[in-house]
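Priority: low. Protein: UDP-3-O-acyl-N-acetylglucosamine deacetylase. Input follows.
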Amino acid sequence: MLKRRRYIERTGKALHSGKVSTVKIWPGFAGEGRYFDFRSNVIPATIDYATESPLCTTLCKDGYKISTIEHLLSALEAMGVDNCRIEIANSEPVGDDHHVEVPIFDGSASEWVEAIEEVGLKIATDECGNSYEKMAAHVNKPIRIRKKGSFVAAFPSPKVSITCGIDFPQAPAIGSQCLSSVPFDNSYYSNQIASSRTFCIYEEVEKMYELGLIKGGGLENAIVCSASKGWLNPPLRFHDEPCRHKVLDLIGDLSLLARFGNQGIPVAHIVVCKGGHALHTDLARVLSVS
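Result:
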């Protein structure tokens, strides 16, 4: 958990709503796990409260929604922040204010990783000063899910690893990419995954606007690829940055399996091809009951 008496505070613009929100992350007691506090409404960061939403992952409870949680939760899961209260609020509440979105910053998880490293971590204890052993679920038999040409699976493995493939034939500059056997440890994550930014196809931007999405999007918080002109805001941070960002998203979505301060992502070899948030959370739901 975060060091007691220290907390993280960050303010920024949201990707889809375009609104400004503030996030404060407070250290929690052992066994509490990760949970959001929005207008005094507690929403656990678990798969039980994940709902279908376009181009992001959303938690919903009692009519209150928190969107675009994946980058923040990805950083917390990978960096070992297992018990914390995530206080979030819109900077300019309007009306009943039942919806808030986590800031996007530069489109990666770097802002959160840097903030965690700045405040430091310590072993979580309960209110009596007792610490608990951190547990992780193991996948004992293969689990496979297919959906509309996409595929995700979890295979038994002695350690966590991730293989991710993407395919964007409509944008040759992205094309087909694969990142194989990515280890799950905070050093690899902070150096090789966290800084990879969200991306989009330029020719699809207008359609997303029409759907009421990416109102806060711009070249400062996403890498944009044109089908005919290639990358519009180079340079990339990695030659396969889009694929790495998919791994970042996957870790954030599978973090929703975490309960009571334990590890979210299961001990397994996770393989995903042409995945997205809906497919990731489908896997999380299956794993949560298997």
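Helices lie at 70-79, 110-119, 186-193, 205-210, 241-254, 277-289. The two ends are 28 Å apart (CA to CA).
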